[in-house]
Amino acid sequence: MPVPSTTTSSSTTVSPDFASVDDVVSRLAAVGYLASDAVATTVFLANRLGKPLLVEGPAGVGKTELSRAVAEATGSDLIRLQCYEGVDEARALYEWNHAKQLLRITAGSDESWEEARSDIFTEEFLLPRPLLKAIRNEGPTVLLIDETDKADVEIEGLLLEVLGDFQVTVPELGTITATRRPFVVLTSNATRELSEALRRRCLFLHVDFPDADLEERIVRLKVPELDAALTSSVIRVIGALRDLPLRKAPSVAETIDWARTLVALGATTLEAGVVDESLGVILKHQDDIARARAKLDLAQVLDEA
Question: Which 8-state DSSP code applies to residue 59?
């Protein structure tokens, strides 16, 4: 049997490091993410306190992008666990390479089971999945547990265990403890209620669609070639669309796509024909497009400037 390879937690440090809330704002802005004061403050506190950060809000408001920006701003590895219905411990934590183990057993057919067992349950045959990869990573790491609400309730128990001590026990190898704790971000679209136990473990941040001023700054950053007046018109129309009872309101990413579309079309003003022809860029359901065509008073929206 192999000797368990247990790492002690006495030297554990937290992964990326921010000096202040202003440092969060400036470093995220440097990689193209404009953080509100609330976002920057919560990111700073989660980092300073070594707590997982639970980011909740509608789809398309930049929850996942926040993790990518933190990783890029701090030079950290981004490791992502994409949650979905049916994701299990093997997909989240680790599993054994059974095909390779079988080949090894077949090749050593003259060995006893005890001899074969000591050979096949080793690092060579271990397939680390995102949670174990993040714990074992020795460099700065951002662990993104994306769309946590899509996973089954049982996965929350696993997350509580792993995120509590940042260690994993592999029976055949021993206990593996993070020497450098990852910065953990869990995202949720609130399609189901997460357990109170998991919420208590985390700092909470609700992210909604940005206000008009912030979204305009985001578009100007991402699509600088779009005329400033046209950018303002885009933001007003997007705001009006979000006020309609749509199946899916336009996300920030779709606002940016629309801005790029207008640049590609060579548009200089936001005329009714241009809006009508490009609604499929920002609205993704036919009934939403029909509702927008019927309810959106473009002239009134633009006159409100």
Answer: T
